[in-house]
Amino acid sequence: MEELLYQRVFEKTYGPSDTMDGLLSFAETLRVREAVQSLRQSYQPQHADEACVSRYHTEENRKAYMLAYYPYYVEPACRVVRDYVIPALQERQPFYPVLNLAFFAGGPCPEMYGTLKALRGARFHDRTAVTILDWERGWKSEQRISWQLCKEDGLIHRGDEGKLIYRCDNLLPCEQCMHGRTCRKRIHEQADVYFLQNYLSHVEPAEQETFLSKMRATVEQAKPGAVFVIIDLQYAGSKAIMRELANRVQAEWDVPADIIGTNLFSGGAPAWSRCPYEMPAEVQTKIFRGDSGFLPKKWTRYYYLVLQKQ
Fold first, then answer.
1. What share of the chain is helix, strand, coil (3-state, %, to 5)?
2. How many helices (H) and strands (E) in the chain?
3. What is the pTM of this model?
4. Which helix (H) or strand (E) holds 161?
5. H-run or E-run covering 132
6. For residue 273, which of 122, 68, 78 has the smallest C-alpha distance?
């Protein structure tokens, strides 16, 4: 069923098709296109050092995200987890009775699907404990879709469990958050993998030092052997934050951590991944028709940094 992921995302987001006329009426097609345009414009900052604007506050924009971006962000996570995270965890511990995964700024969390897809073939753990954290409470419906997709495709099994935590601010010290105690017990004392995908592009230049300080504190609180995965799109600001974090890990930190995977150096070219899922004909015919601002997306270019606490 995985090859039909895009089609299933479409139907779960906009409802099952009951007629031969398809899912999207003319009026709904206009609303979806307006939402897609709003999202795409938000990811086009006027200056290289500007952050992308977050426009996830409306239901229409969140639903449009599922069509415009969700299927494309599965593969980067899958590749990075397969190539770096699994070998690092296996070297540290051959078998995990419970593998604890924490996805920060998760949104609808395509990276959860990608991570569990990579783990499916590894077979070095029994159960999975998943935590999705985000500032926006509105993603609940889309997160439920992501969980359903994982369950339908055999990526989540009986005994696995998930928890959603909202109002999680990646720029705020955990000690000042109402979820601090929950996260300390569930994540900082137990998490094996910390994931942060497509968040750095939303960090303003004035907030970068705050983020780096929060990241250092998070690594310090983590248990030995925990792996940190950061993936972000080809933005100058995202690359700069990631490189500064890598430089500090190598030179300044008194927190013992190693860089176990990155494409930031040796020329710093972004990685490319092609979406393996076919866009439904109705989505391309009605939404991504190839006109200005609505070209179908095929490739994702991204930077990644993978750390492991010693």
1. 45, 20, 35
2. 11, 8
3. 0.95
4. strand 161-166
5. strand 125-134
6. 78
